[in-house]
């Protein structure tokens, strides 16, 4: 929306100067200081546009006009009570208003209805003629009804008028606040594009025609109407197709000396109507992954409506874990199309160049690949079944006993069939209780690890399965304390042929807790001084907690 910032400034200037020019009544200007004023128009924050507009307007207003200044949303976030009459109506207030606007913060809500009512009360609208000028970039957010307020102020006031300037509002948003002005006989300026602004200004400055002179000269012949835009491209999926106006994008670049893309001029979405300066451009029309590029030479006084043909179609992929199951939101869908690739998740839709499409759907450890021929302009909708089953794994200290509710539990799923070297192929990993796996039909082993306990449990999966796999650790918890110890070490109780015991684990410090398989062990306290080690035998029972102190 090139030129919108200048249009907003001009709108405010003409509205206020017109208001002041019709009568020497008191006026309060209300400025929206809500957080949305930080949004940008043409790369410039709205609050800066508002400040510059006020300075410009106030410089052109006679010094004896009595002008006041009110703001809302400038002191508190989330408050509907943050409304303040900063400068009371008085002559010579221009510098005070400009200074107040320049120093205020923009962070609150939009209680515009309450602000207009307070300004009307401050002007004693039931006793004297009064005018309020509201500058806002948003709609009421504090429950007020601006339309009803407009009617009330008009009915109860002596001669009350509210004029409203809207910043970058849509036509529908503008209608929701225009009634505040219309119900008081005031004006509303929709400052959303230059054309709408020009039409509004014509209404603002219109005045009764002067009495005709005795012999008016004949009016000159009107000049031919100039086109509003000089560049209006359109894009279609395939030759002869309907233009795409929703979801598509336009990228416009200055052409470099070699004809390639230079500096970017703009990126716009949907239907594009704009004005380009004379020169050479590279224009790209795109919809999702499909693109069409043209070189355009723009000359002064000419209009251009080039057609971009994407030569593309649309693929809609519904991924399923198994035949007859619901669409999977956990699926990864990879589209490999002529010239590129893209990834979506869950129910997937992609617009891609026409030709052979390779679609790979992955759910957990399972994948399925389909090849689709897609013609330009065609939409192909396809269900892809990966064929996996679902398993949820939990560990228990004993079969039927307490669940091991520990985030340190590790589950590794490997294939049951060993490879030629005796190892097993690793399939998936997960940690913590309720670990979920999507697995292709096969025989597997769940290797479950919790501290010093390691258990292997075989299970099988079929497509469409929903299994609850419970792993019995046959283990207990050993809580060890060794006051003053440098480290604590756990050994198997049985010695080997050389009289040595196997070390199962070691921890530095004087306390340690571990899950350990049921059986007999020896716990050794190591001190920093050699020769001070102490040991204690201990027996661990499955599903029980054992506490010992070695000293």
TrEMBL record:
PROSITE patterns, sorted: VWFA
Secretion signal span: none
UniProt cross-references to InterPro entries, sorted A to Z: VWF_A, vWFA_dom_sf
VWFA domain mapped to chain residues: 26-205
Superkingdom assignment: Bacteria
Protein name: Ca-activated chloride channel family protein
Organism encoding this protein: Mesorhizobium shonense
Taxonomic path: Bacteria, Pseudomonadati, Pseudomonadota, Alphaproteobacteria, Hyphomicrobiales
């Amino acid at each position: 929306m090139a030129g919108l910032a200048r249009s907003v400034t001009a709108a405010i200037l003409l509205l206020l100067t017109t208001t002041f020019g019709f009568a020497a009544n008191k006026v309060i200007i209300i400025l929206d200081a809500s957080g949305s004023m930080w949004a940008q128009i043409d790369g410039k924050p709205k609050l800066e546009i508002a400040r510059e507009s006020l300075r410009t307007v106030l410089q052109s207003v006679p010094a004896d006009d009595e002008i006041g200044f009110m703001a809302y949303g400038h002191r508190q976030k989330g408050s509907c009570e943050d409304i303040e009459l900063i400068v009371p109506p008085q002559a010579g207030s221009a510098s005070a208003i400009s200074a107040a606007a320049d120093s205020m913060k923009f962070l609150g809500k939009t209680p515009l209805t309450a602000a207009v009512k307070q300004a009307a009360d401050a002007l004693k609208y039931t006793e004297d003629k009064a005018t309020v000028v509201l500058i806002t970039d948003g709609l009421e957010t504090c429950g007020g009804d601006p339309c009803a307020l407009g009617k009330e102020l008009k009915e109860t006031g002596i001669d009350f008028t509210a004029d409203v300037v809207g910043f970058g509002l849509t036509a529908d948003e503008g209608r929701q606040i225009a009634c505040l002005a219309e119900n008081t006989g005031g004006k509303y300026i929709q400052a959303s594009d230059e054309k709408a602004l020009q039409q509004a200004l014509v209404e603002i400055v219109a005045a009764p025609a002067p009495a005709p002179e005795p012999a008016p000269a004949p009016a000159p012949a009107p000049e031919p109407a100039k086109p509003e835009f000089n560049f209006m491209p359109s894009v279609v999926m395939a030759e002869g197709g309907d233009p795409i106006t929703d979801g598509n994008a336009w990228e416009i670049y200055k052409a470099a000396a070699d004809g390639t893309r230079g500096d970017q001029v703009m990126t716009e979405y949907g239907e594009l109507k704009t004005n380009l300066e004379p020169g050479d451009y590279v224009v790209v029309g795109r919809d999702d992954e499909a693109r069409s590029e043209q070189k355009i030479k723009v000359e002064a006084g000419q209009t251009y409506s080039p057609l971009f043909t994407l030569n593309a179609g649309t693929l809609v992929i519904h991924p399923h874990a198994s035949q007859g199951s619901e669409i999977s939101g956990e699926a990864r869908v990879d589209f490999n199309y002529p010239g590129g690739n893209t990834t979506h998740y869950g129910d997937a839709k992609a617009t891609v160049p026409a030709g052979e499409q390779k679609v790979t759907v992955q759910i957990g450890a399972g994948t399925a690949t389909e090849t689709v021929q897609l013609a330009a302009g065609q939409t192909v909708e396809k269900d892809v079944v990966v064929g996996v089953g679902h398993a949820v794994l939990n560990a228990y200290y004993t079969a039927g006993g307490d669940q091991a509710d520990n985030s340190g539990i590790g589950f590794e799923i490997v294939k049951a069939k060993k490879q030629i070297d005796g190892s097993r192929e690793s399939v998936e990993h997960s940690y913590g209780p309720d670990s979920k796996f999507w697995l292709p039909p096969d025989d597997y082993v769940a290797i479950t690890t919790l501290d010093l306990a390691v258990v292997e449990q075989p299970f099988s999966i079929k497509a469409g399965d929903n299994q609850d796999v419970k792993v019995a650790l046959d283990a207990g918890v050993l809580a060890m304390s060794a006051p003053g110890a440098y480290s604590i070490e756990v050994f198997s109780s049985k010695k080997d042929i050389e009289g040595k015991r196997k070390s199962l684990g070691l921890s530095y410090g004087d306390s340690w807790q571990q899950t350990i398989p049921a059986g007999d062990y020896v716990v050794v306290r190591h001190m920093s001084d050699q020769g001070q080690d102490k040991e204690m035998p201990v027996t661990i029972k499955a599903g029980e907690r054992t506490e010992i102190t070695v000293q």
